[in-house]
Amino acid sequence: MVDVIEKEMDNPTFKSDTVLSDVHLHCPNKRHLMVRLNAVGQPVFLSYFKLLWDTDLASEKREREATIEREHQDRSGDELCDKEGNNLRELNSEVEALLDDDGDLEVVRRPRSASDLEADLLRDRVCPVILMKGEEDAFEDEEQKCTCSDAVKIEHTMATPLEDVGKQVWRAAFLLADYIVFKRDVFRRCSVLELGGGTGITSIIMGTVAKRVYCTDVGEDLLAMCEQNVALNKHLMELGRGEVKVKELDWLKDEFCTDPEAPYSWSEEEIADLHDHCTVIMAADVFYDDDLTDALFRTLYRITHNLRNSCTVYLALEKRLNFTLRHMDVTCEAYSHFRNTLNDLENLQDSRIKYSVEPIKVDFCQALVYERIEQLELWKITAQQLT
């Protein structure tokens, strides 16, 4: 929980009930102009998130890394080097030079490897370009940098009450999007359901490879923002002939909303399509409240039992550390509850479906630029039909 934001985006004041995503703290030192106010009066911003999935670029990066590695191997054998090729004698001399007058060590970060520096040359920092209607010309150069296929445009808010956190962009959504790009052949032409889709960025990335994605959440204002983001990135999905449909799905209810008068409701044909063809379910950064975590797993259980085929579930999350007075210690209560519920699902004795759970190693390439911290995790649940 952080407190933010009264009026001036460059000089925020803080309130006690507001949540701000770390993604939005990583902004350039420039004007912050909003696109509009949403239906509940919150400022809405437009950000460009650059994609690095070009095949030629990835190949060039691998070739450069291989060249650097060969250069490291060709160094004189009498040099003492660490596993990334840094000369340890040189490092030790640098450390000695950092002792202050009292002999205390002024600790600095270890010098970055050459491969890290090469990667930086190929990547831009995540710098949201924030526009206001009538101000597009001022950012024309920035917009021209983002060609049709190398950026995702996302409307989002930058600070909300806890109940509106879906209107922000979160790191776990980037992690799941990275995995989709990395394993795009696995997801190609699949039918996919996203739970708690928020701004829609993960569904949009999935829509570049999948046949159909049902991006779901609750709240008409949030779903309208998500639908706008899908429209902004329609050109990306057209490349793979994919489709993203924005729908309401409330985990606290047992049935799909089928009221034709309700926005974002389901038709009977869409429900049948989901049950007949869905093989992938995904969710990102939705595990921050124990009651909602329980509701999500109940929804997973209900939907997987209604599917015609076995399916795979991907859950991305950030393990958040919090100091609690109750424990007088740093804990991860929401994460602990998630893990306990995950274990309960795997140990569930069910005659129709067997649930298998495994963590996915987070060492795949980044297709989006963000701070991939060690607290980010990705889990895979296989829901195998037994009958």
From TrEMBL:
One of its GO terms (cellular component) is nucleus. It comes from the Eukaryota. SUPFAM superfamilies: S-adenosyl-L-methionine-dependent methyltransferases (SSF53335). Keywords: Methyltransferase, Nucleus, Phosphoprotein, S-adenosyl-L-methionine, Transferase. It is found in: Nucleus. GO terms for molecular function: protein methyltransferase activity. Residues 64-84 are annotated as: Disordered. InterPro entries: Methyltransf_16 (IPR019410), METTL22 (IPR038899), SAM-dependent_MTases_sf (IPR029063). GO terms for biological process: methylation. Transmembrane segments: none annotated. Protein N-lysine methyltransferase. Interacts with members of the heat shock protein 90 and 70 families; these proteins probably are methylation substrates. Belongs to the methyltransferase superfamily. METTL22 family. This is Methyltransferase-like protein 22.
